[in-house]
Known about the structure:
elongated, 2 domains
Amino acid sequence: MRAWALWVAVAAILLALLACIGAGFIITPPPLNERIQSLQQDSSSTPADIEQEDLDELSADDFGESADDPPGLAIPYLALPNGLLLIIVALMALPLLVGNRRIPLIGGIVSVLGGLAAVIAGITMAIVAFVAITVMVSLFLAAPFGTLAYLAIFGFFDVWASAALLGLIMLLQLAAIVFLVVAQQSMLGNKRLVFWLLLAVLLTLLTMILHSIVPIILVSITDAVGALVIAIVGAIWGLLMLIGGIISLVKQLNLGRQGGGPLREREAAEPAIRSRSATPATELRSATPATGPAAGTG
């Protein structure tokens, strides 16, 4: 095991997680006034049933403060699978810090807490994404005023900045895979780990595809669809981690009831081994006095 490579992999996944969390600060659309002016100046991308007169009547005063929120859910939602992946890889590196004795117990506790948090977060995020899809589709189909509201609020999406950030996230994920293999080639034999690594990469790739297959005015909808998929996958992933953590804790409790688990069994075995190794010498010492007098009397 090359410890440095394992820690580099952990750092790469952590950076990918931070990039997902910081997407809302990195990718920000122009202010609402600028978005409306852009629509009024260039109406080539608007639906055919929207007339220029309707666009000219748009004003930022017609919308609330929520219209200034940057659109985009999928990239921040990628923090959920990347966070779960970070837990898995970090638990692999944890024995380098605390040793192997406490790993089953710590791993079980972390898996239970992380899995429970992921299930709750995934369900909540899925509801938010579903509501966002419903609202955006309803607005887009409610021509002309609903469509105008959709175009003003969600019609702009910074696909170039999103593509750059998604490329960085995927690069960090692939780097983590490479360094995990460098740390120990047998990592490729861990089918469960390989599956989770590839799943995180595929979710990032799915987001990139959904951002590029539709016109820019519809990217917000496909982005929300990707966010819904990511949230559902994250909730299922968290549920599996929760179940695995509970099973691990139950095993540890059963071992503790049976005599303290492997650690105590090993500690109890050490005196027995020492006593068995001392038996020949003891027998030799006890046999020497008995042999001496017999020799003298002879």
